[in-house]
Design a protein that fits this description.
single chain, Immunoglobulin-like, Maltoporin, Chain A, 3 domains, 26-stranded antiparallel β-barrel, globular, Outer membrane protein beta-barrel domain-containing protein, OMP_b-brl_3, carbohydrate binding
Amino acid sequence: MANCFCPFKNAMKKTTALLVVLFAISLTVFSQDAAIKGTVIDTSEKRNLSNAVIAVLRPADSVLAGFTRTDKAGQFNLQKLLPGKFILMVTRPAYADYFDRIEITKSSTVDLGAISLTLKSQLLQEVVVQHKLGAIRIKGDTTEYIADSFKLGAGATVEDLLKKLPGIQVDKDGKISAQGETVQKVLVDGEEFFSDDPTIATRGLTADAVDKVQAFDKKSDQAAFTGIDDGEKTKTINLQLKEDRKKGYFGKVELGSDANRYWNNNVMVNAFKGKRKFAAFSIMSNTGKTGLDWKEGMNYGANNNVEMGSDDAGGMYISFNGNDDEFGYGNYWGEGLPKGWNGGLHYSNKWKGDKIHLNSTYQYNKINTEAQGNTFSQYRLPDTILYVNDYGNSFRSRDRNRIEGLYEIQIDSFSSVKITAQASTGNNYGHSKFHQESLNSYGDTLSIIDRETTTDANNKNFNSTLLWKQKFKKQGRTISLAARQNYTEVASKGIFFSDNNYFRNNVLDSTKILDQQKGTDNITSVINSRITYTEPLTKRSLLEFNYSIDNNHRQSRIATFEKTAPTGKYEERIDSLSNEYSFNVLTQSGGINYRYAKPKRVNFSFGMNVSNAAFSRKDLKGDSTINYSFTNFYPQANLNWTMGGKGNLRFNYNGSTQAPSIDQIQPIQDITDQLNIRVGNPDLKQAFRHNFYLTFNSYKFLSERNIYVSLNMTATQHDFSTLNTLDLSTGRKTSKPVNVDGNYRINGYFYYGKKIKKLGFRAGVNGRFNVNHNTNFIDGLQNENDSYTFGAGPEFSYEKEKKFSIWLTTNFNHNVSKTSLRSDLVTRYWTQDHYVDANVHLPWKLEIGSSCNFNIRQKTSVFDKNNNSIRLNARLDRKLFKNDAARLRFSANDILDQNIGFNRNINSNFLSERTYDTIRRYFMLSFIWNFNKNGKPMDW
């Protein structure tokens, strides 16, 4: 009998086991229930929409995971959803469908906020006909431009595309500004692409290869991971390529010459296959279009054709056609006649489902520049004025080899490691001759100096970073470690000769000859690391704890020699001009931050860091050491508020310190320029800066109206300024750095643009202002300096596809500078910069284009020369091949031969105006070919 029930018993056991499993699964499902909620509104009538269908689909197979409808108030709450990634679809009759990707976490309710639907009739009327659907999109703090919404001619480059985008400006040197801020990085598909030279991407890639252009503030990798802002932001543009350009190859060839003096040749090849990218380029040019490292030049004040602003010393500057190329490698900003060579290779790839990522670049560049110019300067003292006239010529040659790489591995779904390394070597050779004359307020000669210098410097640099990121099963709990190392070595040797003649009552009084050899060795070594831990408090908030340690070591050796009588060689050491000095700063910092985030609505954070900086100064020659330390508090606060469809508001505050450079603290004189002697100050303290940043960004895609407003303020304690002492008998100025309080600067920017659909053109207006307050000392007297720059101007663009286009921008700027020691002398003047660019399509595949720069500067009582200029350029293109892939171009540069190299600087009581030679009129014949093969034969 028992045997008869065996099958039944076995079946009962299996059934019971199955029920237990099903019950466990049901418990798991119920325990992981999640939900989404939100409101659906009409974009045009601003009313809530009832009976709209809300569907959640699985992205892998589009299977329905859940759906509901909006109630009478337009609201919905869809519950009992499993965690994961889904596609959200919102539909309603007569409205365009809405799609978005969402991620739902366990046991949470995702608030999607307001979802806007647009009537199909309105889309057909205002968007489809104009081909402008979503031309600009605002996604948090990212502004995204759809490239095909902005019509360009065949063969247009990315740089041509950027010039068309509202809120983005590109100057003649390729420097890019977005929303009033300088763009420092240009990425391709989110990756570095010849990172130190963004013009390679903007001038080498064609616009038709780009799907989207994204402008945003790139955070550090660690800040992006934790969500806590660490103050590191880089204005960045990302070029997202079209999918069909990620397979096959494409590129550009340009060969041009005037058969006499000027030549401009460049080649770029890109071969993409899925995630694998290979690129190579070569540039040879003496027209100034070298494409060399404008980003590095921006760190030292490089500027566009006309730029007004305020400098760190409380001064105001205006420059035309570039400025002195005193720093960096391969920078050309308009001064002199350049010859440039530039080439590089790039390779990147991703494997194993993007878990392994490699990015590498090699680049070589060289530039030779011959220049000559003259500078007129004025020193305004409490009871007199000094004048200095300077005439000179120079030759500079610079070359550099640079290699960099990135390796990133996703160890598992919770952890990853990223390693970067970069190394470079370079040489900088220069030879210059100057003739200087100083005069007093009566026009009497005080000194005449002729000097000649030759320098030869070699440098080495290596830096690397390591970032480890670890997530835990509990959402929001993370730990990350960031480490960074940098080593730089610069060794230079130079000959300095100066013939100094000093006068009294216009009669030669004394003569002094300086003939010296100077050798300098500078080493900088920086090692720092930061560990960060985040712990969730609720579903939307967390705490961040961080600790960092930073060691910054700098060492400088200066050895100056003069000739000995018997041998005529530089063997006699000048102890007063020689020194060996080291400067070390060890900083330890710890802090805590609170962060709250509501998706698509608002996120904010605030917190405090405390640090101790231990300074050690060593005079290696004098065998003396001075140790001291500072304790600082670093408050920080961030707010990012997405105001529905109205725009995005961002606020940021952070405190930061800046240590003095070793040149500023080294107690030794620099007498290279006998009329401008510099001496270090070993008693300098570190500066502390309070940085405030506020922006508002809004775009309405139906009316194509966009607004951008930004306001920046920096107030500095113990700021670095100068103590100037002037010798009225010789016209010599001696400068020493000192700390001051009360310095501040305020910058504002505004842009408003709109498509005037009835007339078919786009118009905009921008405005800006700079306010700068600075204190320095002149002959022991405190001097308060204030400078102001106010500017505004409209822009206008109109185009008929395949017929013509015109683009016009204009800027008016008013500049004011005053000082407390000479309140009777206030400098005021206007400047204007007008630019127009026009293109006309003609029959027989001809296209004619012209651009014109009008630079107008008001004369002043000090600068009464006419340096206004009109720079007119023109070109005639004949398109070749069936798909217009190539063109033969005849171009004319500076037709009126009025291009003037000009720079004006107003700094406290010091005013100067510099003119120099630059590239002027030339004519060129060029062949330009944009080739492209994406699995298909090219159409010839």
